[in-house]
Design a protein that fits this description.
354 residues; mainly alpha; Cytochrome p450; 3-stranded antiparallel sheet; 10 strands; 11% strand; globular; metal-binding; oxidoreductase activity, acting on paired donors, with incorporation or reduction of molecular oxygen; Cyt_P450_CS
Length: 354
């Protein structure tokens, strides 16, 4: 059942009573890592409580590596593009892989500090896993991922390498923290510190996450750059939504892409590039103040939305100080929404120096 009414979508996403559960694909999750978004019940509550402090906007602004990491990565990007300008002062390129590389570099530097090259390797492997899993998903044969195909063996090798790198990074950082070193320079340290100082609502100490679980959380951070085109839930028990009663085990799809292009919600200019629609804030941009849900809604809203927005704003401000751009003649508008939305034929633009 597809629900594209924003009010009903928020009703589903805001439910705190366990009537809806996230749709899971265990064989795929094992190879792509099930982070915070995959947890349910008390396990989700504990992990969310532990991680929330590390992602508060004030904490991110205090993060000593955030600005230098972004500055370094953006300078390298701008310098590379500037050197590529032709004799006419322009340069045409596909910016989709460029921005993927930029985001991976920023996240790696910010999350892993001086070990960012190891973090970059994890990011690279995760990106490869997404492509390989998307290919395996299309085959749709039960038990296919258990077959010793070349692609399946490579996915398992990638997963083992990712776990090995992250276990090593976490182990070294925890040892440094236990020895009293000042390690509050990156996101990993903030997360581990939050994990070590966790208490419940009554002030009583509760156990943190295992090393394995903290590995899993870092995978979640690596997905910051990838916007979903829809959210999926499944009814856990009989429930009424919008006057209609649904039995248990009904798959509910909340199609964000459809809602964002509904003229009844966003007026008649839904297909136009019109940033000014948000001049008076998100709640005033459409007929429904709750129609904009890029980071989900309710108790399971994306924990890293502040990180993602801060990174995006800073990156574009730095790039636009040196370069301007427009769509290239070779650009073809087509969207590939296999799991994540991305340009099907790339995002070709023409750059020129300011």
């Amino acid at each position: 059942m597809a629900i594209h009414n924003p009010d009903l979508a928020k009703e589903v996403l805001s439910n705190k009573f366990g009537h809806f559960e996230k749709v899971k694909f265990p064989p795929l999750s094992r190879l792509l890592a099930a982070g915070l978004a995959e947890h349910e019940g008390e396990k989700w509550v504990k992990h969310r409580r532990i991680l929330n402090p590390a992602f508060h906007l004030e904490k991110l602004k205090e993060l000593s590596l955030m600005l230098p990491a972004l500055s370094t990565s953006c300078e390298e990007l701008v310098n590379r593009w500037t050197r590529s300008l032709g004799s006419d002062g322009t340069y045409e390129l596909d910016v989709f892989p460029e921005f993927q590389r930029l985001t991976g570099d920023v996240i790696s530097r910010t999350a892993f500090g001086s070990n960012y090259l190891e973090g970059a390797r994890v990011f690279q492997l995760q990106s490869e896993q997404v492509e390989r899993i998307a290919g395996a998903w299309k085959i749709g044969i039960p038990g296919y991922l258990s077959l010793p195909t070349k692609n399946n063996r490579k996915m398992h090798q990638n997963n083992s390498e990712i776990e090995s790198i992250l276990h090593g990074l976490i182990g070294k950082r925890m040892q440094a923290m236990q020895e009293g070193e000042n390690t509050k320079e990156d996101l990993l340290s903030l997360m581990l510190e939050s994990n070590m100082r966790t208490s419940d609502d009554n002030g009583q100490f509760i156990s943190g996450m295992t090393i394995k679980e903290v590995t899993l959380i870092l995978y979640e951070v690596l997905w910051l750059y990838s916007p979903a085109v829809a959210f999926f839930r499944k009814t856990y028990k009989e429930i009424k939504i919008g006057g209609i009663t649904y039995p248990a085990d009904v798959l509910i799809e909340l199609p964000l892409l459809l809602m964002n292009h509904d003229p009844d919600i966003w007026e008649g200019d839904v297909h136009e590039f019109k940033p000014e629609r948000f001049t008076n804030g998100i709640s005033q941009a459409s007929k429904n103040p709750g129609a904009f849900l890029p980071f989900s809604w309710g108790p399971r809203i994306c924990i890293a939305q502040q990180f993602a927005l801060l990174e995006a704003k800073m990156a574009f401000c730095m790039i636009l100080q040196c370069l301007e751009f427009e769509l290239a003649p070779s650009y073809t508008h087509a969207v590939n929404n296999t799991r994540l939305m991305r340009p099907m034929h790339g995002a070709q633009i023409k750059l020129r120096a300011i």
